[in-house]
Amino acid sequence: MEDQPIKSDKAVKISIIAGALLLILLMAFYFIYYLPSRKHKLENTSVRTENNISKATGMQENSTGSIEAVTPSDAELKQYYASYKDPFVLQIRKALNGYLAGTNEGMESPDIVIKKDDLNGSPSGLASFDKEYYKSKFVVLAIDDALFGGKDISIIFQDKPDIIFTAWVYKFSDVHYDLRGFWEDDKATENIDLALKTFGKYIFDKEHSL
Questions:
Q1: Do 151 and 61 lie in a common domain?
Q2: Number of Cβ atoms within 10 Å of the Cβ of 133
Q3: Which residues pair with 173 in a beta bridge?
Q4: What is the dihedral of CA 11, 12, 15, 20, to 10 degrees?
């Protein structure tokens, strides 16, 4: 039987260097391509938010381009209310409760999600904001597919309705979800007065909130 070849120290060092280079490339991709693309998505969220909530609640634009309220159908209301049973949305409340309790339940990488940071000019990370936000119930303004899987969910807190946030929730399986990111949607926040005036009936609906 032939002797099994033994890896030299040089081969081991080469493997370590190759692994390090791969990690650097992945990090470069994340910061150069992924974060800017997410920022581009944020810059268009004000329009996206209006479109999503208008579809869900029966809000429509009139011929002048302004937003006006109409009476939603039972089917439209059912679709909107169903979002509060969506496991992606439920995961946000689970993670916020975990953060408040100090257990960080609901986050696979709490250090990343909590860390006070900046996403191309937008505050990000749970620690960037007053915990009083998370003690309040929130309502869903929009749900979109996230670039790297999962959902980007736009929310506003009922007791402190001065910021519109985006929460990125990832799905591992039908029973395993993860809050992976949380930041202020600064562009949507600029239009928050319009949102409050137009959608106030739904934003302050205590029954349909989490």
A1: yes
A2: 19
A3: 176
A4: -140
Q: Give the residue numbers spanning the domain of 165.
A: 45-203
Quote the number of domains for the chain. Answer: 2
User: Residue 69 in contact with residue 77, Cβ under 8 Å?
Assistant: no
Is residue 210 one of the residues assigned to a domain?
no
Tokens encoding 42: 């944020």
Q: What is the DSSP letter of 162?
A: T
CA gap 57, 193 in Å, rounded: 18
CA distance 60 to 84: 22
Task: Say if CB 168 and CB 152 are below 8 A apart.
Answer: yes
pLDDT per residue over 38-95, tens digit each? 444 433 433 344 445 544 444 444 545 555 654 568 887 888 899 999 999 999 999 9
Which pair of structure tokens corresponds to residue 14? 């080469």
Side-chain-facing half-sphere of 70: CA atoms under 13 Å: 15
Q: Indicate whether 208 belongs to any domain.
A: no
Confidence (pTM): 0.70
Helix (H) or strand (E) run with residue 170 in it: strand 165-173
Helix and strand element counts for the chain (H, E)? 9, 8
How does DSSP assign 102-161, residue by residue?
TS-TT-SSHHHHHS-EEETTEEESGGGS-HHHHHS-EEEEEEEE-TTSSEEEEEEESSST
Residue pLDDT, tens place only, 20-45: 454 444 444 444 444 444 444 433 43
Would you give the DSSP letter of residue 83?
G
SS3 20: helix
